[in-house]
Amino acid sequence: METVKLYGAWPSPYSCRVIWALKLKGIPFEYIEEDLYNKSPQLLQYNPVYNKIPVLVHGGRPICESMVILEYLDEKWPQQPLLPTDPYERAEARFWVKFAEDKGLSIRMIYRTEGEKQEKARRDALEMLTILEEHGLNGKKKFFGGDNINIVDIAFGWIAHWMGVIEEITGVKLVEGNKFPLLKAWMHNFKEVSLINENLPNREKMVAFFRTRRSLILSAAWHPDFGFISRR
Amino acid sequence: MVEENRVTLRGMWSSMYSKRVELALRVKGIEYEYMEEDLMNKSMLLLRYNPVHKKVPVLVHNGKPVAESLVILEYIDETWKHNPRLLPEDPYERAKVGFWANFLHLQVFEALAVVFTSEGEVQERAIEQEEVFGVKFIDRDKYPIISSWVMSLTELPLVKEVIPPREKLAGIFRFIRDKALKSSAV
């Protein structure tokens, strides 16, 4: 059997997605931790376009982009399927995965900005969460995947664990009081799944890590895509 | 067409996302009914079929709606499995296609959208972004491979059938740009 390696980073929700999928399917893999401030030459070699984690390397061949990796895993290891078999249900699942990817950016922007830009990001995020509550979760069973988690639950995983960290660091509250009851229930159920529960990064460590990173971003000393900005 | 296998595409003649789906249906030889949406005056049906985004294209098959152009393409390939295939069979090759589809969407189209709807400093920065990722309005000397690929595409008879006339496109793009500039200026 060809070896599976995962280049990841402990604080990254994208990295966690792949770990959850690998463990769900019982695929043995070697994990390589990347220092996000000091990336290895192997990472650049495997992901020359973005130089980002996660990267899955299967039999020496790299696959990048967490959701692309998940679809690849589902095709190569069909046990514990992440996607439904029916084409229409697959289309529905992919629609919500795309929604998670596109709209997740607004929550990231809350974390990366301040002032007016942050306020706009907050409004976008609330709109996104409202749509999720009203159209995504309405009428659903425990999870998007029914009684068990599937690719959509994994795609939204960052809401369950990372959104709270962003709320704490920035002071911008999104899910509060009686708002979003379905979303709150889903978040609780998702984190209760033992596979997920055992593979979540430590919250205090995350708060410290993202707090530092946010000040680096805001001071323009560092950019998530371009790394440390040298003095011009 | 019998209701059973009925395929309807709700689209917009100037939308490239809509054109993607039209092209895919034609490549596969799938019979479909096309319904033009007036984006200024969206139909009740569109709102019902795509309540989340209220956007075209939406493919309706057997009465069930599928939204998001790339998701529709995958749905078409999985439902009508005959040749030609839209995606490769091999999972690794499929992963490569998935990666580049994301790249195109995020880096090229999103950047282009900003260039298109802005001016001045914002536009400058967006164009810079494009240069970082190496795709700048497909300058033939700088990007010979991409240029020749685009040329080959536009020469395909199926593609020629679907692409709207240049003047018509220029007209509506001008309208959209003016609208965007007016709404961002205060």
UniProtKB/TrEMBL annotation, chain A:
Pfam families: GST_C, GST_N. Residues 86-209 form the GST C-terminal domain. The keyword Plastid does not apply. GO terms for biological process: glutathione metabolic process; toxin catabolic process. It catalyses: RX + glutathione = an S-substituted glutathione + a halide anion + H(+). Signal peptide: none annotated. One of its GO terms (cellular component) is cytosol. Its EC number is 2.5.1.18. Keywords: Cytoplasm, Detoxification, Transferase. InterPro entries: Glutathione-S-Trfase_C-like, Glutathione-S-Trfase_C_sf, Glutathione_S-Trfase, Glutathione_S-Trfase_N, GST_C, GST_C_Tau, Omega/Tau-like, Thioredoxin-like_sf. It is found in: Cytoplasm, Cytosol. Residues 2-81 form the GST N-terminal domain. GO terms for molecular function: glutathione transferase activity. The keyword Transferase applies. Its main location: cytoplasm. Belongs to the GST superfamily. Tau family. This is glutathione transferase. It comes from Punica granatum.
From TrEMBL, chain B:
It is an enzyme of class 2 (transferase). Its EC number is 2.5.1.18. GO terms for molecular function: glutathione transferase activity. Gene3D superfamilies: 1.20.1050.10, Glutaredoxin. It holds the Pfam family GST_N. Residues 5-84 form the GST N-terminal domain. InterPro entries: Glutathione-S-Trfase_C_sf (IPR036282), Glutathione_S-Trfase (IPR040079), Glutathione_S-Trfase_N (IPR004045), GST_C_Tau (IPR045074), Omega/Tau-like (IPR045073), Thioredoxin-like_sf (IPR036249). Its main location: cytoplasm. One of its GO terms (cellular component) is cytosol. It is found in: Cytoplasm, Cytosol. The keyword Transferase applies. Keywords: Cytoplasm, Detoxification, Transferase. It catalyses: RX + glutathione = an S-substituted glutathione + a halide anion + H(+). GO terms for biological process: glutathione metabolic process; toxin catabolic process. Belongs to the GST superfamily. Tau family. Is involved in the conjugation of reduced glutathione to a wide number of exogenous and endogenous hydrophobic electrophiles. This is Glutathione S-transferase. It comes from Punica granatum (Pomegranate).
